[in-house]
From TrEMBL:
InterPro entries: UTP_pyrophosphatase-like, YgjP-like_metallopeptidase. Pfam families: YgjP-like. Residues 28-218 form the YgjP-like metallopeptidase domain. It comes from Allosediminivita pacifica. This is YgjP-like metallopeptidase domain-containing protein.
């Protein structure tokens, strides 16, 4: 994969992806991290791809401007935890804790982002393990392991060996959204697809799941806008 730059103010980096399977030129803007990818079928010259990119420039810049701006996490920042936005405040002691509408974080100010990220990951692990245990028990199919990552392209996944993976940023979403994603991935233990049978399993485990999927589609990008010193 190469990279080209769309000139202008500001310039836009575009990843150029050659694909033998693609049948037409396509431009994709990731809703999670803002990466722009231009897919070019095999045999299409680069000048044609650049012409296509310039035709789409107005659309692309409009969507880039509408993206969530990055939010640096530190003292005074406002951060959602389980669907409730709270202010990050300093405190003495050793442990991060919630108190009313505040997240109290001890230690030097420079360490606050890393401390918060570690605390959120651990909280996410507890919430997701509880949900996955509950749903897999109801399904009657155990999972083999549970891992957390900071994935940009998906909120969760399930391997053919029964391993579950989730984005730890789900702990910032409302609890019912996290629970839906856990049910979704556990359902793959029975149906490794997105067929009607799969969605029937999701509904049996969770109930009406569509509002939670809609919430993620509308608000998921905002959860990725928070930067923890990385």
């Amino acid at each position: 994969m190469g990279q080209i730059t769309l000139s202008g103010n500001p310039p836009v980096a575009v990843a150029l992806r050659r694909s033998a399977r693609a049948r037409r030129l396509s431009l994709r803007l990731s809703a999670l991290d803002g990466r722009v990818t231009l897919t070019v079928p095999k045999g299409v010259p680069e000048r044609e791809a650049l012409s296509f990119l310039r035709e789409k420039e107005t659309w692309l810049r409009g969507h880039l401007d509408a993206r969530e701006a990055p939010v640096g996490v530190g003292i005074g920042a406002h951060l959602p935890v389980e669907g409730v936005t709270r202010e990050v405040r300093p405190v003495s002691g050793r442990s991060v804790r919630l108190e009313g509408e505040a997240i109290l974080v001890p230690g030097a100010e420079a360490q606050v982002p890393a401390r918060l990220r570690a605390w959120l990951r651990e909280r996410a692990r507890m919430r997701l393990a509880e949900a996955a245990d509950r749903h897999s028990g109801a399904l009657g199919r155990p999972y083999s392991k549970l891992t957390l990552r900071d994935t940009r392209s998906r909120w969760g996944s399930c391997t053919s060996e029964g391993g579950l993976m989730f984005s730890w940023r789900l702990v910032m979403a409302p609890p019912e959204v996290l629970d839906y994603v856990a049910a979704h991935e556990v359902a793959h233990l029975a149906e490794m697809n997105h067929s009607p049978a799969f969605w029937s399993v999701v509904e049996r485990l969770y109930g009406e799941w569509r509002p939670q999927r809609t919430w993620l589609r509308k608000n998921g990008a905002a959860l990725h806008s928070y930067r923890f010193g990385d």
